[in-house]
Amino acid sequence: MADPGPDRWLSVESALGAAAVVYGGAMALRAEWYRRGLFASQRLSCPVVSVGNLTIGGTGKTPMVVYLARRLLASGRRPAVVSRGYRGASERTGGIVSDRRRILLPAQAAGDEPWLIASLLKGVPVVVGKDRCRAARIAQSAFSPDVILVDDGFQHLRMRRSLDLLLLDAAAPFGNGRIFPRGALREPISAAARADAIVLTRSCQSDEPLPPVLTKIQALGRKPIFRAFHRPRLRGVAAPGAAILKEAAVTATEPLAAKRVFAFSGIARNESFQQSVRALGGRLAGAKGFSDHHRYPAHERGALEHAAREAGADIMATTDKDFARLGGENPFGMGLAVVGVDISVVSGKESLDRLLDACANRHRWD
Question: Do 160 and 57 share a structural domain?
Answer without folding.
Answer: yes
